Amino acid sequence: MQNQIEIATFAGGCFWCIESAFNAVSGIEKALSGYMDGHVLSPTYKDICTGESGHAEVVQVTFDSSIISYQTLVDMFFALHDPTQLNRQGNDIGTQYRSAIYFHNEEQKRIATDTITHLNDQHRWPNTIVTQIKPAITFYCAEDYHQDYVSNNPQNPYCQMLVLPKLAKFKQLFTEKLK
User: Fold this and answer.
1) CATH topology of domain 5-177
2) Cα within 13 Å of Cα(147), Cβ side
3) H, E, C per residue of the chain
4) Residues of the chain whose pLDDT is less than 70?
5) Interior CA angle at 126 toward 123 and 129, to 5°?
6) What pLDDT does residue 3 have?
7) Which end of the chain has the lower number of beta carbons within 10 A, N or C?
8) Is 14 annotated as catalytic?
9) How far apart, in whole angstroms, are the C-alpha atoms of residue 45 and residue 57?
10) Domain ranges of the chain
11) What's the pLDDT score for residue 75?
12) If we measure between CA atoms, which residue out of 15, 14, 3, 25 comes closest to residue 173?
């Protein structure tokens, strides 16, 4: 079977957790932390942290759809964060921490929309999902020190208290999909 390389982009709070989780999944060539959906050209982390650049912290995933489906990636995304929190994830507060799926084609848009409808119908969370579904636009790769942040900084208190427990749960849920 021939490789079928595609791109997916997700925003679910701090990008360190989402990037680390996706980089552990079979069929994913790379997951990069970055920024999307703002009005500042070539934003920096400092720009993003103000909340005024309009960007979200995102993870752009390059994957082989002959190995892992976009639907599975969307399911993983919803397992990694609380999509009912508007412009925040826990103590991370601001529009840069919004929940969003940036689609790269109409099929991705359909899958994201159908998944949200299904999850809301199941009442998986006590509140309604606020995840935005928007077309992907320019992706700005985050600074080098953000890439593989969790692997390079496991002793960081934020990683210890928030990210590593989420990753442990993720790995239990998706054991069969890991590299």
Assistant:
1) Peptide Methionine Sulfoxide Reductase; Chain A (3.30.1060)
2) 10
3) CCCCEEEEEEEECCHHHHHHHHHCECCEEEEEEEEECCCCCCCCHHHHHCCCCCCEEEEEEEEECCCCCHHHHHHHHHHHCCCCCCCEECCEECHHHCEEEEECCHHHHHHHHHHHHHHHHHCCCCCCCCCEEEECCCCEECCHHHCCHHHHCCCCHHHHHHHHHHHHHHHHHCHHHEC
4) 1
5) 70
6) 78
7) N
8) yes
9) 9
10) 5-177
11) 98
12) 25
Tokens linked to 106: 């109409």
**Tens of pLDDT, residues 106-155:** 999 999 999 999 999 999 999 999 999 999 999 999 999 999 999 999 99
Q: Which residue type does 121 have?
A: D
Single out the catalytic residue among 14, 17, 49, 159. Answer: 14
Rg (CA), the chain: 15
